[in-house]
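re: ur msg from earlier - yeah i can do the S-adenosyl-L-homocysteine complex, just paste it... oh wait u already did. ok heres what im feeding in:
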Amino acid sequence: MTLPELESALTALGEKKFRAKQIFQWLHVKRVFDFDKMTDISIQLRTVLKENFCIKGIFVEKRLESCIDNTVKYLYRLSDGNFVETVLMEYNYGYSICVSTQVGCKMGCRFCASAIAGFVRNLEPSEILMQIYETEKNSGRRVSGIVLMGIGEPLDNYDNVVRFLSLLSDKNGNNMSLRHVSLSTCGIVPRIYDLAKLKLGLTLCISLHCPDDKGRSEIMPVNRKYNIESLINACKDYIAATGRRITFEYAVIDRVKSSDSDADALADLLRGINCHVNLIPVNKVRERNYSTARSGVSDFAKRLEKRGINATVRRTLGSDIEAACGQLRRDAAQSSEKNGGAEV
Ligand code: SAH
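and the outut:
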């Protein structure tokens, strides 16, 4: 619940409005998720709270720590027995967290592990937020950056993601500036226009991965509905409305749109747009035969730079713990099927 919603819910129960702010701070500042521990609230009101509200927790099912680079990957169990993944990454400026927005994904991108097991349900705003709160608590680290790049398509769960962003940045609560948040989408065009209207200050990242419609439709089915031209037009609108630079993500996959002529086509497509290209060496997915040679990525980057397009190469983190999203959840879901239920 947002603070105004909590205020009206409490006044409807005959309670004082200021109690809402106290409870909101217990949740979002002190991170206390048990009404009985909210000690400046009377025992009587705590009973009312327990009767009328619930605080849904998420639970660490598995925690994998990389020996190479301190990346920590969490498999969280939700209150209904479903699983999502969250990854904590260390950078020289601090810690960044990658959160999931859905259980599974409908988008079906060919190279992505999240797509293989299909879609189950949207995450609630609190379930997205709790990935951050629980990870901070479990790791003892404070995150300074958040990326919505875990399992799921954030713009396919638009309302809940926008609510999550408002809870995350509420001045009375967690108070995180949305300048430290990046939202990655495969390109749900109408929602990009909606997001632009909100002028949130976050960084929008577009999973482009291919400079032409034919090739993009082969690896990203969403392109059959929203083609590259409509996507680029939405991006231009987003930049005009928000004044923010867009990041285009491009997985450089051997033998798939990674040649010099592909780099040239990408540079032509993005020329004149206030953007930055983040080149991604593809993460290995067991069922797929994609790979990336390091030299291929740096050649691609150089070619783009030569054509005036700003490009960086994404660091590969947690390669020993399958930090590529979706793999851990699928393993857990498969073993729970063998055990005959969602609860393992
Ligand atoms: N659905 C959103 C966010 C989740 S995926 C989106 O599509 O952007 C986050 C990023 O990881 C996307 O750029 C996605 O294309 C990329 N990705 C998915 N599988 C990958 C893999 N095996 N290797 C490298 N990047 C991958």
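cool cool. Residues 107, 109, 111-112, 149, 153, 184-186, 207, 249, 251, 280, 282-283, 285, 324 surround S-adenosyl-L-homocysteine (CB under 6 Å). ping me if u need the other ligands too
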